[in-house]
Amino acid sequence: MGLVFVRCEAVVQRRGLPGRRAVSADLFRRGGRFILQPRLNSSVLGGDSWLSIVVKRGKTSRWCSDADIAIRSTTSKGKRMAEQFYTVASDSETTGEDKSQLSFPDVAIGIDIGTSKCSVAIWNGHQVELLKNTRNQKGMRSYVMFKDDTLSAGVTGGAAQESAHEERDILSGSAIFNMKRLIGRMDTDEVVQASKTLPFLVQTLGIGVRPFIAALVNNMWRSTTPEEVLAIFLLELKALVEMHLKHPVRNAVLTIPVAFSRFQQTRIERAFAMAGLHVLRLMPEPTAVALLYAQQQQQLMHDNMGSGIEKIALIFNMGAGYSDAAVAATAGGVSQIRALSGCTVGGEDILQNIMRHVLPNFDSLYDGHTVDRIKSMGLLRIATQDAIHKLANQESVDINIDLGNGQKVSKVLDHSEFEQVNRAIFEKCEKIIIQCLVDAKLEPEDINDVILVGGCSKIPRIRSLVLGLCKKEVSYKNIDALEAAVSGAAMEGAIASGVTDPSGSLDLLTIQATPMNLGIRADGNNFAAIIPRNTTVPARRDMLFTTTHDNQTEALIAVYEGEGEQAEDNHLLGYFKIAGIPPAPKGSVEISVCMDIDASNVLRVFAGVVKPQGPAIPPFIEVRMPTLDDGHGWCGQALAKMYGKTIDLAVLPKKLQP
Amino acid sequence: KGEEETTGAAAREYTTEQLEVVRQVKKHTRDYYQILGLEKDCTVEDVRKAYRKLSLKVHPDKNKAPGAEDAFKAVSKAFQCLSDAESRKRYDLVGSDEPVTHHRRPSTARAYNGYYEDDFDPDEI
């Protein structure tokens, strides 16, 4: 379980006022950290400070009496207090048992946080139901608006406020969006660099630390983080669902891009925890679509229209921020993911390419982030987006905008020009599809159905490209391109929560696979993959390593994730040291490194000496990954500087069994 | 146990049938054919069918009995080996799908025992 929580009572006191009161809260544990989250019905306000917490276990109560606990708390209005560290002070009175809240069905909801739009779906007992906001939208814009003292997210679109947000407001610099592209990325990342032309402030130092992100409030840049923005958005989303279901929501199944690193996954889980949601499962977006496909195939079987033979589907998903491809083999309600591949290109890149194309001095013009420039940037963005949408259905489109300050854009854009400008993007899409087919050891002829989803799947060139590679005339029809992922997530939510349906409509299963290689640095700077990509999860694999120096008593286990052959080309997830290796000639010691991914996608690394054996050998070490919190680019360099090759490992050549 | 853990509380129940299927799988962890309940002369289609059927029974999404996760890992490993003609041939020949050093199994298996309890224990804090 990635994040475990227990019910507890927290005693709080209003700053400067006498009297204490108990509120119920959830205590989350992630790695060695504790996060306290007040429950929905607990009114915890900005001036409150925490005094103590008590964890209930059956009829007995246990006081927490040690450890610094990081407390994140939220007020009912959706504002987050500053994170405080505190040490539990003293015992205090608590309220009695409260079991009534457990009586509601604890079924995980499905959430699809898109770069541009977000949707939420629930299993209503019979089928998946997408929820609509007060504006009657199923797809809600993913952004948070910062205004004076109020924050409002795209879920309600400011409908509850005096005035609803318009596109112009969202692009005024006061709203933060594209959180999914920014979360968990360092300022050296090209995706972060490309985000510097967004209306809000993305400031980079280019040294491998978090970018500085800020929204314009009363002509001042107010700083925030992608996690915080996402948490505020999720609080509004959670309230929407709870209003609909009339009971609190705890668990969610979330769809994520295939290209998301494990580090990004932990950041997104943290944002969910801040909003009081536990992520039960993380599903790569195309695999959620695969589950929906499996259900439809099963339905055909029940209606005596299907053959029951295994069907191979290629799923291509392209949204605003990411593209994903997957190959799934489906039969009997079981969808097995054979291959996954993803990259960080999406509609946002297409939009930026076209904006640069129609306004060649785009970058220099919008460098300063002055209010005037933000305004004209917003106008250009709206006009370009509109043109791209129109181009999906017509041969050419006129772009005519007055950007103010004497700047005018007047251009006719046709298909061939559009395709020329975005050629690099289309090539990347082709690459991940080909990669998927190769990894799944399939020819285009083996594919039964091509499923196109995501906002960008409406672009004619994308459709023809995917269908061409799979040698198909038409794509699979019965899936809604914008609703498929969230529907699959809600279905998985019901399945993983243990819901069974008497009609058999939940006798389904998606067998997931790892999207990226997981391994350690060995043989110099090489990357030794222990769990190769596309391994079915849950999974456990081990590999033997040996020392590279005589009498080497310590070894560094540096864990990486990615596709690069060199360790440095991959994401460093964490590292630890094995000490107490008995002195021996190099190459004679055997060190086993085992990696384990559980059903909740938690990665653990085990390592220890297996040869020689004996009482002098130190115990194995278990480490949950990622352990790194920030600046992982630096850590790798610091490790190299500190230790050089002195505590390196080498892959032990495999010997055949006699 | 499970009462105080509100997360997935409803999902922690399992039947004796589910526990039994987990036990069955774990009994034969070194024989891939026996794990999938197949004969040595089965077809690839048989392997796929058996894998799907067994996955629906032991996958941790479907089976909350203790050990289901490990059972599914074993089932997947067996499928991975037997569904590929090349690795199946090697397995049939040497009784293993991968070249292994002779003594690794017993020691590593023992060392990992007990590491996999990730249930949250309120006593810890």
Automatic annotation (TrEMBL), chain A:
Name of one Pfam family that matches: HSP70
Matches recorded under Gene3D superfamilies: 3.30.30.30, 3.30.420.40, Actin, Chain A, domain 4 (3.90.640.10), Substrate Binding Domain Of DNAk, Chain A, domain 1 (2.60.34.10)
SUPFAM superfamilies reported for this sequence: Actin-like ATPase domain, Heat shock protein 70kD (HSP70), peptide-binding domain
Keywords: ATP-binding, Nucleotide-binding, Stress response
GO molecular function terms attached to this record: ATP binding; ATP-dependent protein folding chaperone
Family to which this protein belongs: Belongs to the heat shock protein 70 family.
Protein name stated in the entry: Heat shock 70 kDa protein 8
Annotated source species: Dichanthelium oligosanthes
